[in-house]
Structure formats: C-alpha cells, structure tokens
Amino acid sequence: MSQTNIQESKLKVLLNQLGHYFAGLNYSYGLRVAVGVGIAWFIAFRLQTDKPYWSIMTVIIVSLPMQSMLVEKFLARLIGTLVGAFVVTLLATVALDDQWLFTIYMAFWLSICAYLASIKSSMVTYCFALCGYTSAILGFALSISPSSYMVFQITQARILEILIGLVTAFFVSMLWPSHLERIIVKQKLRLQRSNVKRLYQSLLTADFDPLKFNKVYEKTLLGLMDFRDLIYQEFLSVSTEREDNQMIYHYTYRLMRAMSGVLVLQSIKQDLLKSDQLAVTEYLNQLNQWFATAGITEEKLKRKPKAPDALLKTAKGAEFVTKLDEKFTEFYQTRLDQPIDEDLYMPDRNIHYSDRKEALINSGRTFISILFGMFFWMETQWDMGYILLILIGIICTLGATYPMITKLLTITFALTLLLTIPISFMLKFGLLIQATSIVPAMMIILPLYFIASLIRASSMLGFLIGYGFLLASSFLIGFSNPMSFDINAFLNQTFALLVALGIILLIFNIIRPTSNERKMVRFQQDIMQQFSQLANHVSLQAIKNYEALLTSAVQQAKVIPDIQEKSRFLAHCFLTVVILKEQLKLQNAGIEWIIPDNLIIAIKEERIDEALLIVNKLEEKAPQEEQLTYWILRCALTSFNQFLEGMD
C-alpha cells in the first residue's frame, strides 16, 4: 500500500471517529443551558437584582443532561433553598452581632447539612447539599453587614436570584422536551436484555472461566441497576408516557429476577462437572444451541432439549435441571407487555444503606474547613474574606455527594488555574468590556456556554472541564448589575477561589476521605453484621428488606473502581442471599433448619475451608429433605472459596 493510501485511510478513520463523537453529543442539553442562562440573565437584569450570576449559576447547577433528573433536582433545590434561608435567618437573629459565634453556628449547621447529604437517599442528599449551598451564600454574605435590615435585604435578594435560576431552568427543560432521552432509553433497554442473554450463554458454556463469569454477572447486575434508576427518574419527565415507563420499570425488575439465581446455577454446574462431566457437558451444549435460535416464547420452550437420563437419575442432577427450567421460563416470559405480576419483588426504595462513619468524616471536615477559613479571613483582614467562606461552604456541602472528591478537587484546581481564569479574564476584559448592552454580551457568552455544556455531557473528564468552567467563569466574570470591570475585584475573586480550593485540598489531605479499600471492607462488615442478625430469624419480608439494603449498598459501591475489596463485598452479598433463601425455602416446607453459629462466624471471618468442613459434617448427618440444601450451600461456598483464591 502506498504512502498516499495509508494517509487517506488514516484520514477516513479520523473523520469517522470525529463523526461518531459529534453525533453522540447532547445538543439538546447544550441549547437548554444556553437558553436558560440567557433568560435567567435577562430576567435578573430586568428585575434589577445586584448579583445575577447567582441566577446563572443556579441554571448551570440544576440543568442536567437528562430532563427527568431536573424535576427531582428542582424539588430538592427549592426545598433546600427555603430551609437554608429559614435557618440562616434564625441564626442571624441569635448571633449576627458576634462574627465568630455566628461563624461557629454556621459551621455547625453546614456540618449537619454535609452529614445528611452523605447519609440519605439521592433526593434527600441533594436537598441537604443544596440547603448547605444556599446557607453558605446567604449566611456569610450577612456576616459583613450585621444589621436586621441587611438580613432582610440580602436574604430576599439571594432567594430571588436563586428562584429565578430555578424556575427558568425548570420551564426551559419542561417546554423543550428532550426526545434524545427516549432514544437512549430504548437503546439501553435492548442492551440490558442482550447482556442478560449473554450471561445465560456463559452459564450454558461448560468450560466458561468461573472467575470471568463472576465479572460478567457483576457487570450485568450493575448495568441493570443503572438502567432501573434511569427509568425511575423518567417518571418525572414530560418527554415520556407514565404508562410506558411503568412497563419498562417492571420489565427491568423481571430481568433482574431472571438473573437472580444464575450464580447459584453456575456453582452447581461446576460441582456437577466434577462428578458427571460427560452428561452435563452434552446437555449444556444442546441447550446453548437451542438458546441461540429464534422463536416465539411458547413454541421455543416446547422444543427445549430434554435432559439426559444420566443427569435426571440423581437428585442433584434433577435439581440442576429444574432450576435451569425455572430460569428459562422467567427469561422468555419477560416481556414489555406482560401484566403486572403480584409476586414480582421490587426493593423498597425507602430502605437505604448508610455509611455513617464517612458521613461523620465529611461533617467534621466541613466544620474545621469553615473555622480555618474564618481564621484566615480574620488574620488577614481581607475585604473579600466572606467570599472565601461562601466558597468553602459550597464546596464542602456539595462535595459530600461526590465520590473521589480529593482527586476531583485537585483536577479542578489545576483546570481553574490553567484554563478557567485565563479564559474568564480574556472574556471580561477583552470582549465583554466592549459590549454596550446585555444583548451583545449574551452573543459573546452564550455560544461559549453552549460548547462548555456539550463538553460537560460528553465524558467524566468533559464533566470536570465543562462544569468547572461554567461555574467558575460565571463567578469570576461576575455578571453584576450593572457590569463592573474592576481589575482589583477580579483579582480578589480569583484569589478567593484559589485560596478556597487550596484550603479545602489541604483539609481533605489532613482529614482524608476513607480509601476505597477500607470503605468496601466497612461495607462488607456492616452487611455481614446484618446477615448474622437475620440468620435463623428469616421471613419473606425480612429477606426482601435485606435484599433492598444490599441493593442500596451495591448502588453506592458502583462509583468505586474495580478493586479486590469491591468484588469481595459483592461475593459476600451473593453468598448470604443464597443461604437465607435456602433457609426460607426449607421453612416454607415446614422444616426448621438452624444455621450453626460456628458456620456463620467462619463465613464472616472468611475461613471458608473451615466452613466447608462444617457443612460437609452437617450434610452427612442431615435428613434426606435437607441434603440438597447442604449441597447447594457447599457448591456456593466452594465457588466463593475459588473466587477468593483467584484474587490472591
């Protein structure tokens, strides 16, 4: 191939990649942000508010790529704004004459906000994060003007500016339906079913690597959880029909039910392959070929290959075939138009796993950071010191809701220093200073904010670049009314932003967030403690609540990278559910099966070899009706042990 052809080929590849990149951008979101910022800016100017940039920042914070997410955030922010304003007014009437006392009260209140933002469900989390955000904006601005008149003036001005941004973002998104959302939902719906189908195909492959199977299962489960949350938020979107969402939501849980016992089947398969490899392998190969064919549900289930007699003549083989048949029926009967199944279990969303230790760390860090910022302000007698406290309060309370916050802050600091500050300076003193009215100023700013919004919605790095630029530039440019072009004020705001980020980074490196490894160990210990309390006291509702707790814990673990401790935690979740469900199964059959304390302790302490010995001894002495239960437990423990050994 000639050099010219090689270059043309590379150019085509590059153009294709660029085409895919630009085709995947969320232009609807970019336009919503740009239009929302423009309208909020215009209304704030017309109403003569002195700091319209709070309206602009509110639009940026509340506007989200998915329209459905906006309604939840809007309600949380509205409640957070009103509660924050009420508490700050209350604190101001008590202690505004004493700056240090007022700051201590504010630090304590923001610490409570940070704690609750770290420990509650997503809606409540965002509500308290934004409550702290509003409190910081109002409270520390009041501290420089300690009078009852200024309390009223500043409070009503800031609330008005925030409400302008809230209402604007809400109505722009509601009146501008995001049809891209429905396309994304349909694409992800097909992807989820394909992923579950691939999991089944892996199960039906005799020599499929068990460790790889665990990873496929984990990825499929987390993907379904993400999709479930997306559909849950879609109930709040005007771009979708509620009835359609209801069907997809139930369909997602049916898919989760279809894969719920697959790990147990994998462990049983591994055990049967040791005792009757030929019959099991032959049957799995026939099933795999049948599973790959197309067909209508009823017709396809009728022509499912029959299990060989060699497999059915043993109780263990028959149990394996029965469980496989149940899974196939569940999978093929999972349809969008399927009537609501009363037996379909959906975890209670009011049951949440709370990492209280991490919440206390966030709370203490917030308190110390604010006092440190106050000390810096008082010692330097800096005129703009109150802005420093506002920024610290905002970063601490909002930061409590983000994973890997130290890394995010470090990247944000670097991007602010190298990108946002220079661009904001050029925009303000190079272009905006020449604008004679708000219209030409908008023509300069809004296209840039449109581009930044596209970048924000493109990837994780894009989120840091785009979101950081949108927020920091609106603060640094300072869309005041009228616009001010004081270089000293710009330098003061720049210094306040950098010092605030620097102080937070310093405190975050002194009072560090728990490492991902230790956090997952803590998750595992908490879950095993719950399992210990529930074992031998099972009921259908208790297991449902336990699964809801596991679902919440797994949901929180999603943001943690793939590390050994995370996989270990997920393996413990699987093992405990298997044990509890087998105990409930026997209980429903009228058989009382008591799990020995030494077995529970051995599992908690990961002494699996010892746990296997205990199970083997119990299996030898167990009556006939309990034999299969011990065998299933032994299979699960063996797979669990192989998994742990494979990680070492």
Please tell me about this protein's structure.
Keywords: Cell membrane, Membrane, Transmembrane, Transmembrane helix, Transport. It is a multi-pass membrane protein. InterPro entries: PHBA_efflux_AaeB/fusaric-R. This protein is mainly alpha-helical and 648 residues long. Among the domains are: 179-332; 516-647, no CATH class. It is built from 27 helices and no strands. The protein has helices at 3-23, 27-46, 53-62, 67-95, 99-119, 122-142, 148-174, 179-203, 210-234, 242-258, 262-275, 277-291, 297-302, 309-312, 315-332, 356-380, 385-399, 405-431, 438-456, 460-477, 487-510, 516-534, 540-557, 564-588, 597-604, 608-621, 624-647. It is elongated and about 90 Å long.
Offer a few descriptive terms.
single chain, 648 residues, mainly alpha, elongated, cell membrane, transmembrane helix, transport, transmembrane
Radius of gyration: 29 Å
Report the β-strand fraction as a percent range: under 5%
The helical percent reads over 70%
Mean pLDDT figure: 81
Shape: elongated
Total strands: the figure is 0
Poorly predicted runs:
none
Largest sheet: none
Structural class: mainly alpha
Helix-strand string: HHHHHHHHHHHHHHHHHHHHHHHHHHH
**Span between N and C termini?**
48 Å
Number of helices: 27
